[in-house]
Fold this sequence. Notes:
globular; alpha+beta; 389 residues; six-stranded mixed β-sheet; 42% helix
Amino acid sequence: xxxxxAPPDARSVRALFIDRFxxxxxxxxxxxxRVNLIGEHTDYNGGExxxxxxxxxxWVAAGRRVADDPTGPVLRAVSASHSVMGTAPLSAPKRSGxxxxxxxxxxxPLLEASGRSESLDLAVDSDVPAGAGLSSSAALEVATALxxxxxxxxxxxxxxxxxxAWRAETGFVGVGCGIMDQFASALCRADxxxxxxxxxxxxxxxxxxxxxxxxxxxxPRSLRTSHYNERRVECxxxxxxxxxxxxxxxxxxxxxxxxxLEAGLPSPLRGRALHVSRETRRVRDAVAxxxxxxxxxxxxxxxxxxxxxxxxECSRPELDWVVERAITLPGVRGARLTGAGWxxxxxxxxxxxxxxxxxxxLAREYESRFALVPRLWLSTAxxxxxxxx
Length: 389
Ligand code: GLA
């Protein structure tokens, strides 16, 4: 299983800041990546999701600097994994296509709201794998929101940090994602799953004691974005058609499966809508099971996967193989693809000792079958974003 020699932490990001900027940071914050236990492609359809934070985090150290640039405040950004220092104006910033857009998109509105005009220096260190569908961008945005707010003397509630992060991702970086990732990174708690209603941003927690094996199929990310946007359009169209019959329908997820069946939607909209409607109900069943002290059943986990595979059509043979093979291994309760799909990660749920055994078996067989080298991480439900002391 992949495990770096020295994982980053508050100390390493502080040291990076001092090394590159020649002084100590004012504030250090961190935020985790996430996986979704169940409730896929429901967030942008007004439905419900059930993510946990993973044990991998992004650390951001931040410090103020007197704005010495005549054009106004400037952001400087360094990262342990990039050699180039990024710079961006903080008044009327423009998207650059570079990794520090995530920082600029968060920092600029916070600075504007504060009425101050200092420049900001930021250092980033992270062990959240990028491009694997584990929300490395949300972790970066949320940690930045907490760190920058701290520097500006503002105490930010975690759900406000999530909202600022989500606005940066959708409005500035320009990725049309739902609210799940930023809320999960900000709000999750150790040993609990976050039950989030995406239309109202209301949330509650449910105990989650299982371990997870996160299995990254090593299928490139580029496949995912275009299909994701296509699905969003299909869902909007399905909702439009359903509203012709039920005008008061608030969202696609609010439609009952029976309504979807009765509406006679054309293919593939019928499958998309049925998935969203049923998946939201699966989330509720999963939460009820967790609250009753139980576990999320194989039926729910694999049911979600099969629905994503056949109705939402966002799986791939590699992901299907991982799910099918994993559930034959001892101590594995269930498995499903997680995140957007079309590659990325599957989760295998069960008890930790069993997953430690299952991991190498799955990795070995996957590699010889698909000629791809997967990455695997074991995780439990971990703490969300925080300011570091
Ligand atoms: C991606 C998006 C999330 C969500 C999932 C699918 O991870 O970033 O907002 O839509 O896909 O559930």
